[in-house]
Design a protein that fits this description.
single chain, about 260 residues, alpha/beta, Rossmann fold, seven-stranded parallel sheet, two-stranded parallel ribbon, 9 strands, binds nicotinamide-adenine-dinucleotide
Length: about 260
């Protein structure tokens, strides 16, 4: 029996990287999973692969930067599966510029996806979790929820705010049996990094060397290693864990 047998989960940004690994791991652990992404081609491909292997998933094409899309996604998950036990807020984008160069639009975009979508999906999910007596929300934050760097002040600001949102939601909804936690990944090699390396003309070996210099474990992590920790926080194994930030960073923030 899987750790999530009989449970229903919703995951944002589930077509790639950490989100995709989470969807696949949750299904392997017995959950039925609804996942949203703005990348329809990738989302449909992931859904088709999982369905062909016997898993139950619903892919919803959505831009979670908008409140209506978040609420619509959660509503579709409920309509398809009839309840919701777990929400994983994972969709994220990055921007590399100082506040001097950042436009008002870029602030709106990054806060809409990396912060507000987490609140809007929670807004949709919490009434459903209440209905069935509890649930678990896992927010994908970052080491950048507590440290800064890499010319990404907008990303770092949004991730710091996700830490606050996580603790605030845990406080407000703990009495209803809803646990809210965050995972804070360090350097995790995902399609995002593959695209960025290509754009910068850098190699994977250079990426690995950089991760080695900034971690105790001397290597980058994998999306599957993050999904394993999201699974822990989402599952009954973490029944007394709420309001916490779990660093999954090879020791980066302790160095
Ligand atoms: N990879 C890392 O090193 C790392 C480290 C710390 C935190 N994180 C966080 O992990 C999460 C996932 O990152 P990843 O590395 O897997 O990236 P990724 O780019 O591989 O995946 C992100 C997914 O989110 C989707 N997405 C982005 N904006 C969206 C929107 N408006 N609506 C719907 N879907 C949208 C993308 O299409 C993509 O499928 C992000 O929140 C990121 O900040 C990643």
């Amino acid at each position: 029996m899987g750790k999530l047998t009989g449970m229903i989960a919703a995951v944002t940004g589930g077509a790639s990287g950490i989100g995709e690994a989470t969807v696949r791991r949750f299904v392997a652990e017995g959950a039925d999973v609804a996942f949203a992404d703005r990348d329809a081609e990738r989302g449909q491909r992931v859904a088709a692969e999982i369905t062909a292997a016997g898993g139950k998933v619903l892919f919803v094409e959505a831009d979670v930067g908008k409140e209506a899309a978040c609420l619509g996604f959660i509503k579709q998950a409920d309509a398809r599966f009839g309840r919701l036990d777990i929400l994983v807020n994972n969709a994220g984008i990055r921007m590399y510029q100082t506040v001097v160069d950042a436009s008002a639009e870029s602030w709106d975009d990054i806060l809409a996806v990396n912060l507000k979508s987490y609140a809007y999906c929670a807004k949709g999910a919490i009434p459903l979790m209440r209905r069935s007596g509890g649930g678990a929300i896992v927010n994908v934050a970052s080491v950048r929820s507590v440290i800064v760097g890499g010319n990404s002040i907008q990303y770092d600001t949004a991730k710091h705010a996700v830490a606050g949102l996580t603790r605030g939601l845990a406080m407000d909804h703990g009495p209803e049996g809803i646990r809210v936690n965050a995972v804070c990944p360090g350097s995790i090699f995902t399609p995002f990094h593959a695209r960025r390396l290509q754009a910068a003309g850098k190699t994977v070996a250079e990426y690995n060397a950089d991760a080695a210099s900034r971690t105790m474990l001397k290597r980058p992590g994998t999306a599957e290693e993050i999904a394993a920790c999201i699974l822990f926080l989402a599952s009954k194994d973490a029944s007394y864990v709420t309001g916490t930030l779990l660093f999954v960073d090879g020791g980066m923030t302790s160095m």
